[in-house]
Design a protein that fits this description.
Strand order of the largest sheet: 2-1-3-4-5
CATH superfamily: SGNH hydrolase
CATH architecture: 3-Layer(aba) Sandwich
Number of strands: 5
Largest sheet: 5 strands, parallel
Number of domains: 1
CATH topology: Rossmann fold
CATH class: Alpha Beta
C-alpha cells in the first residue's frame, strides 16, 4: 500500500484557494459579459432592421434563405444574434443587403429593390471606403443625401443609423496613408453632417478603432486597413448597439 505524503492535502487546498482567488479577481460574477452592451428592447415588436453597405456589411452573407448564413459573419450577424437571442418574443426581423465592392453610386442603383421595397423600420448604412478611391466628395454627399431623403419620403418614421467609414494604417493603405486617411476623414465629416440633417443616429467607428489600437496592434482589429477581423466586428457590434440604444432612449424622452 502506497502512503500519501502528509503535504499532499495542504498543497491541494492551497492550489484550490489560489484558483478561487484568480477566478474571483479576474472573472467577476457574470464574466466579461457584464462589460458588453446589454441591449434593451428598444425596437417595436416585429421591427424590420436592415443593414446596408459594402463588403464590411456583406460579411460573405448567403444569397439563399439558409438562416445559418443569411446575415454573413460580421457585425450585422452579431447584433442580430444578440437582439434575437435576448428578445425572441419581439420577433425582430434582421436583413442584410450589403454587397462587396459597393460604393454610394451602387446603392443608388439598387435602392428601390434592396431598401425601399423591404420597408425597414430601422435602416443602418455603412458606405464610403470604396468611394474613397473613385467617387468625389461632393458626389458622395449629394447621392447619400438623396438616398436618405427617399427613405424619409417613403416612411418618415424609419429610424436611420449612419455608420461612419473607418480605417487603420495596415496593409496596402499604409503606402499612401496621408491621402487615404484624409479622404476617409472627409467622408466621416460628411456622414456626421448628414446624420444631423436627417436626425439619424451616428455610429462613430473611427473613435472605437483608434482606442482599440492602443490596446492591441492595429492588425489585430483590421487586418488590411479596411476589413475588420472577428475581434473588430465585435467592437463594431458593441458600438452600434450602444449608440442606437442611447439614441432611441433619448428620442422617447
Amino acid at each position: 500500500m502506497v502512503r500519501q505524503s502528509p503535504w499532499l492535502y495542504p498543497a491541494a487546498i492551497g492550489v484550490l484557494v489560489s484558483l478561487f482567488l484568480f477566478l474571483f479577481l479576474f472573472f467577476p460574477a457574470g464574466g466579461y459579459a457584464d462589460n458588453a452592451p446589454q441591449p434593451k428592447a428598444v425596437f417595436p415588436k416585429g421591427a424590420r432592421i436592415l443593414f446596408q453597405g459594402d463588403s464590411i456589411t456583406d460579411g460573405n452573407r448567403g444569397r439563399s434563405l439558409d438562416p445559418n448564413h443569411i446575415l454573413g459573419h460580421g457585425y450585422a450577424f452579431i447584433i442580430a444574434a444578440k437582439y434575437g437571442g435576448d428578445f425572441p418574443e419581439k420577433q425582430y426581423v434582421f436583413l442584410n443587403r450589403g454587397i462587396s465592392g459597393n460604393k454610394v453610386t451602387d446603392l443608388q442603383r439598387r435602392w428601390g429593390s434592396d431598401t425601399l421595397d423591404l420597408k425597414p423600420d430601422v435602416l443602418s448604412i455603412l458606405i464610403g471606403v470604396n468611394d474613397n478611391v473613385s467617387v468625389p466628395l461632393d458626389e458622395y454627399e449629394k447621392i447619400y443625401d438623396s438616398l436618405l431623403t427617399d427613405v424619409e419620403t417613403a416612411n418618415p418614421k424609419t429610424v436611420l443609423v449612419l455608420c461612419e467609414p473607418f480605417t487603420l494604417p495596415v496593409g496596402g493603405v499604409k503606402g499612401n496613408w496621408d491621402t487615404w486617411k484624409s479622404g476617409i476623414d472627409a467622408r466621416r465629416k460628411i456622414v456626421a453632417g448628414l446624420a444631423t440633417k436627417h436626425h439619424a443616429a451616428l455610429v462613430e467607428f473611427q473613435k472605437v478603432f483608434d482606442a482599440a489600437a492602443k490596446r492591441a496592434p492595429a492588425e489585430y482589429w483590421i487586418w488590411d486597413g479596411v476589413h475588420p477581423t472577428y475581434s473588430g466586428h465585435q467592437l463594431m457590434a458593441d458600438a452600434w448597439m450602444k449608440t442606437v440604444q442611447s439614441f432611441l432612449t433619448r428620442r422617447e424622452r
